[in-house]
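Supplementary Text 2. Reproducibility record for the structural model of the 415-residue chain.

All settings were left at their defaults, and a single model was retained for analysis rather than an ensemble. We include the record here because the model underlies the residue-level annotations in Supplementary Table 4.
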Amino acid sequence: MKGIRSALAAAAVCMIPAQVCAMEIGDRTGIVYYSGIDTYINNYPIRAYHSDGRQLICAEDLRGYGFTVDWSPEDKALYISRDDSAADIQRDDGIKRSVYLAGKRAHDIVYTDISVYLNGEPVEAYSIDGQMMIKLRSLEAVGTVEYSAEENRASVFIDGLPAAEYAPLEEDLGSKITVVLDPGHGKSSWSMSDEEKRSAGYDCGSGGWGEWRHWKEGSASEDCGGCRNEGQCWYPIGNGDRDTEPEINLRNALAAKAQLENMGYSVRLTRTANDENPSFKARVSYCYPGNDLTAEPDAACYVCIHSNAGGGRGSAYIGAGGNYTQKWINSSYQEDCDLLGESINRRITAETSLSEYSGGRIGGQGYMILFHKSPVPAGYMEIGFFDSADRRIIDEEYERIGLAIAEGINDYMTE
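Retained model, structure tokens:
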């Protein structure tokens, strides 16, 4: 049997197109979204997702639905088979209808050399977050798959497995996508006591108060301590000092927060008042549950809201581009940062009186500390120039700016 399985796995790898084979393990090939379609096997609910019109389920989840799912490290293959001895399927009451999650980004699809087989036959599969997904339609090999647009339901019926009586899913009103909004620095560092600086997450080094620009490679909580020489790595606290801008940024952030919450998102603000001046270490901690940098991040994205200076006109985002080595980021981190910023700026220039500055993207600043410390895609916005004629627009249209920020984030999460 092992020889047959090895031959099947080798054949499946040979069927991968040459251009795909040139990719590296872990490279993103697509995106999986939360499904808004209630999905069942013999009327037992199962978690479902979708991508490019394909309804997907986790292959490993089939273990609880009358299947055996065996991993073969020698073959680098997952083998799914009907378990004819299965006498019971337990209804998972934790599976609910996604009210706020439906249609939002759930996982990246990444390139893998793992193959999946159903009853000995290779099936199209997608690797996400340590699991393999298969199309729901693949189960037509062992049963019947039906879709009902009227009932918003996908059903698989397999003879020989236990069956339940159909019951609609309960709505899930608690699960939401988390977005971090960062209004930048508030209080001037000159007005802060040493204790306030220390409490805000700053360190006192040979160059005065500040913080390290990078985490240690592969870390998301340990400062680099000067990995690329102190001039490149040290970020002085005074770099964030502003006068007029803090109130503008906070006002835009609060307007965006209100709109995002109306859309069903959960929002965390890195500061809520202008007498606060958190370090970037403190600010990116909002990407984690309970601000715990040692936990796995639970935010979907981070948006830094700023206003520009220098007498120009228009809105833009700062493009990513650098040697980012922090923990948790994926292979498409830079691409995602730019996509997030572009999505927001496109909405701002379309729905407010602000024009597009610098083609909408400010390049050459990918070294910025946020890009090096955020564990999730970060959009860095420069919304108008507060020292030019843009100021009137910024002051009069902040609610429209907030709505545009929210819509841009939602575009990123759903496109």
